[in-house]
């Protein structure tokens, strides 16, 4: 039976916003290449020799610079961009742009050095030294490049797994400093910048837009909202082994533009570590006088937050995330959660509009004691006529979203047991990345359309 569409789409940005944003991003790369062509870059390549090598080095540098700025723009937390694409997709694009810009930057450095060495009849090593110390802004560029290299290396998945979130997050902030140091040499000595008024206008404009976006949306707006709502810790409650909730009070919270399912980046002013922001979803429907987050006590910062005293000031960035009712297509819903991924699901189970029998929640944990917020989930289910399924047990050896005790069932079969009409439901998913991948495969096998699957990766 086909699901009935509900009226929530009008709160999402129109599709043309997403199309226009994507077109502008791609257009910036076209402009960078066009400026290289305008500066006789192609003619230099056709002439061959060291001049051709230098010219290719120029265009790789221009595209690398443009991609670096796109990286900054993607994570500047512009509200309409975030609503159009969601943080998961923006993070993936940010990483992709970062890798491409890194390798293009490496190519730029190598090609320019080889090209200049060939034109001047000097050795490559000597030419590299001369460029670094003899040209304005180049020492800054060397330092910025070193920082960017370090960030890229530490962003590789194997390296990230060896770092605590707190350490990785702090080191990742050096990417902003790296971009700030690496790009100015283009303004001072870049042939494709100083030789063209159009190029100067373009590059100053995109630098200004990116810097302004960071200042306004990553710094200014969070500071204003933190001052405006004056959030403080009200109390901390332990919900399950290694899981705690923080209740926060504030001023005029009914005006805070947040929906169930969204998350903030939180900074608890408990002393050390306050500079590191942590993304935590709301674990209850926002109320006029109270917000609540629920977190797993993993890492030094989480234990520090769990020990926060009543009255501790809290700074916020956000709200972020599209795991809300605004993306909903169908009347019936299925919520799938694992571990601490239950936090936005619990808020959605309470807040989304549905009739009795139209909502189901499946919650995966390693042991029954690990089910956080279980009493609240049961109370909401009784009050609203929702079905809640607890799936506890260790994971199987093969990739599956089910515990080993249910290994005799296929992932798709279990979905149909929980919701026989799963293909006609909106499915909200949140949990650890490997579990999420198993869920997505099962949903694809169950023929759930992609636009009915809404997820938020619980990972970094």
UniProtKB/TrEMBL annotation:
PROSITE patterns in the record: FAD_FR
Lineage of the species this protein comes from: Bacteria, Bacillati, Actinomycetota, Actinomycetes, Micromonosporales
Protein name: Ferric reductase-like transmembrane domain-containing protein
Chief location bin: membrane
Entries under Pfam families matching the protein: Ferric_reduct (PF01794), NAD_binding_1 (PF00175)
Protein's cellular compartments: Membrane
Cofactors required: FAD
Residue ranges occupied by any FAD-binding FR-type domain in the UniProt entry: 226-326
Transmembrane regions: 20-39, 59-76, 97-117, 137-156, 168-189, 201-221
Annotated membrane topology: Multi-pass membrane protein
Keywords per UniProt: 2Fe-2S, FAD, Flavoprotein, Iron, Iron-sulfur, Membrane, Metal-binding, Oxidoreductase, Transmembrane, Transmembrane helix
Organism: Rugosimonospora acidiphila
């Amino acid at each position: 039976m086909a699901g009935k569409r509900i009226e929530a789409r009008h709160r999402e940005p129109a599709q043309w916003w997403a199309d226009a944003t994507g077109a502008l991003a791609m257009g910036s790369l076209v402009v960078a290449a066009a400026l290289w062509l305008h500066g006789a870059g192609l003619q230099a390549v056709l002439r061959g020799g060291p001049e051709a090598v230098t010219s290719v080095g120029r265009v790789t540098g221009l595209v690398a610079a443009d991609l670096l700025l796109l990286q900054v723009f993607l994570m500047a937390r512009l509200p309409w961009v975030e609503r159009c694409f969601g943080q998961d997709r923006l993070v993936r694009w940010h990483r992709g742009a970062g890798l491409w810009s890194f390798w293009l930057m490496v190519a730029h450095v190598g090609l320019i050095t080889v090209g200049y060495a060939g034109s001047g009849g000097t050795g490559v090593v000597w030419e590299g030294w001369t460029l670094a110390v003899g040209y304005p802004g180049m020492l800054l560029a060397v330092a910025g490049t070193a920082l960017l290299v370090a960030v890229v290396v530490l962003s590789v998945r194997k390296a990230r797994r060896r770092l605590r979130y707190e350490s990785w997050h702090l080191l990742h902030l050096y990417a902003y400093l790296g971009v700030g140091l690496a790009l100015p040499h283009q303004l001072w000595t870049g042939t494709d910048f100083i030789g063209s008024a159009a190029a100067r206008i373009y590059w100053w404009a995109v630098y200004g837009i990116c810097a302004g976006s960071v200042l306004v949306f990553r710094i200014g707006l969070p500071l204003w909202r933190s001052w405006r709502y004056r959030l403080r810790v009200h109390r901390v409650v332990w919900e399950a082994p290694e899981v705690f909730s923080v209740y926060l009070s504030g001023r005029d919270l009914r005006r805070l533009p947040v929906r169930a399912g969204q998350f903030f980046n939180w900074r608890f002013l408990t002393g050390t570590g306050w500079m590191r922001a942590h993304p935590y979803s709301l674990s209850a429907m926002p109320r006029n006088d109270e917000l609540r987050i629920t977190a797993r006590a993993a890492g030094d910062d989480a234990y520090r937050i769990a020990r926060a005293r009543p009255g501790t000031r809290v700074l916020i960035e956000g709200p972020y995330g599209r795991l809300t009712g605004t993306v909903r297509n169908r009347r019936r819903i299925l919520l799938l959660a694992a571990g601490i991924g239950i936090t936005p699901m619990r808020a959605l189970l309470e807040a989304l509009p549905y009739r009795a029998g139209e909502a189901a929640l499946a919650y995966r944990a390693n042991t029954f004691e690990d089910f956080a917020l279980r009493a609240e989930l049961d109370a909401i289910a009784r009050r609203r006529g929702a079905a809640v399924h607890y799936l506890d047990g260790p994971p199987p050896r093969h990739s599956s979203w089910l515990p080993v005790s249910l290994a005799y069932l296929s992932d798709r079969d279990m979905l149909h047991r929980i919701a026989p009409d799963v293909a006609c439901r909106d499915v909200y998913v949140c949990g650890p990345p490997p579990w999420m991948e198993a869920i997505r495969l099962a949903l694809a096998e169950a023929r759930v359309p992609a636009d009915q699957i809404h997820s938020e990766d619980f990972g970094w």
